[in-house]
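Consider this today:
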Amino acid sequence: MGLCCAIFEMASCACTMGQCIMKNGQLSLKAANAIYLLILIVMTFVAFVLQEWGAPSFNFYLFNVGCEDVIDAAACKGENAVYRISIGLALWFLLVALGNACSSNIHTGMWGIKVVSLIAIVSGFFFIPIVGQDSYVQIARVISALFLVSQIVSFIDAAYHWNRLFIGESTTKLKLLLVICGLFVVAIVISLVLLYINYHHCTRQEVFTTITVVLVISSTMLQLNTETESSLLTSCIVSAYAVYLCWAAVSSDECNPGEQTKAQLTLACVVTSISLAWTCYSAGTKDWSGEEQLVVEEQLIEDEQLIEDEQEPKQSMVGFHMIMATGSVYMSMLLTNWGTVSGHKSDAQMWVSIISQWISIIVYVWTIVAPRICTSREF
């Protein structure tokens, strides 16, 4: 009862705070995006807590299905809790996306119904036996690969946006840009050297690291020799992400001695949070329906809020909710080490990470060459 009271008190405080940023029953677009991100973060934290301290002590049949004949039954129950929260949250985002396809106001309003439905869906999955966890894990790995690729799309979008901040005649901005790029280059070189030093337990680890070096150098040289909006800053960010994916791949290789560390989970959560935060921010100015959104930069400062309020209800956020749904699935793979916590060994994370790296580089190269190939289109 104490836990229930605490939850309702927190919900009451959240509703009170929400009244300060709501207008006519609707949140602003960016405020709504922040709430969705907060929901994903909170549910991830709840899944982590249940996985480590709550679920292993659950002892009722519907929850224990599939954990009778495994190496570590407690870890299996923890996985089950994570899977249930992940599936419920992903389903909830898909339902919100479906509703948003009918009315854009659903994205910023109807919070009472959405919160109640979220609690009902996630809680309900705890009383449904999950049969075929292995099938879910296989599907989740594929969806997670798509999410990893969406991360690089988010980072590329952010890099182009940040690069525009340095465009101009100011030498101070140019010097700052060079310093930032220099720090990126130093970090990338040091990281690659450390990969060679620490991950040489089997041939494929050295092969993956060498491929990463070739991809980083090739994409950067292509960018430097192509007259497009792309910049060295963009290449640095993409290269850093490629090195991160290489590390995620080689560090999860079965030929490594010992177990994986919490540092991998922590770094993965940080990278994911940054990409989702940018997705939530950029979704406030991006038209997910595919139609070009008008941006009036010449308006006076006092008119900007009025313009924003007039434009917000016109956007469709279906794409945004699809990304959040895939992020919910990816969360379950992060917390369960790609479905191997209960004793099942797999190289899934290694292959998903390295293939995502290759796809990410292809996407970035396409953003460089597309303006020269498709000259009749705007990018």
Remarks:
- The chain has one domain: 28-287+306-373.
